[in-house]
Specification:
Length: 173
């Protein structure tokens, strides 16, 4: 799929088929994640690959009852590694760059999945402590996004977007 078609056709999908994601496709998504740009090329993030039903159920509870983590065959949890980013950039690295790195990697994940005919949804509403417990993350690693990955069990719908004239500013507000 052409890059711009991929961007236009990527939509948030919350219901998934029981069909497994092929290992080759999963590997391509992981390679895309690994290619994402990051501050100082540190890759100040961790990705937790979740397949077990019990961990997916814990993530669904942590996400305030959202069911997509349970339905999807694979769930990726993107976490900011504050210590890694702080090692080069201090406080700003810990508080900002690590989060930016994790979110860029998560966006690459979503685009790679869409290009491969897979569906995703970005889950940002969750109880951080509960996600920490579900994935066994150390204290210096902060969950940023939960992304279920699988084959869509619903038709994506396009949502209205702001006009470019409303979104883009020339130089100053």
């Amino acid at each position: 799929m052409d890059f711009f078609d991929t961007v236009r056709n990527r939509h948030s999908i919350r219901r998934y088929q029981t069909r497994e994601v092929e290992e080759e496709k999963l590997w391509k998504i992981l390679e895309a994640i690994n290619s994402a740009p990051s501050a100082g090329d540190l890759q100040g993030y961790e990705v937790v690959l979740v397949r077990s039903a019990s961990t997916k159920e814990a993530l669904a509870r942590a996400a305030y009852g959202q069911t997509s983590p349970v339905q999807a065959p694979v769930v990726l949890v993107f976490c900011a590694d504050r210590l890694l980013s702080a090692s080069k950039y201090g406080k700003r690295g810990a508080e900002l760059y690590a989060v930016q790195d994790a979110t860029i990697a998560a966006a690459y994940c979503q685009l790679a999945a869409a290009a491969l005919g897979l569906a995703t949804v970005w889950i940002g509403a969750f109880d951080t402590e509960a996600v920490w417990a579900a994935i066994g993350a150390p204290e210096h690693v902060t969950p940023v996004a939960i992304i279920p990955v699988g084959y869509a069990a619903e038709e994506p719908r396009a949502t209205p977007r702001r006009s470019l004239s409303d979104l883009v500013r020339d130089e100053k507000f």
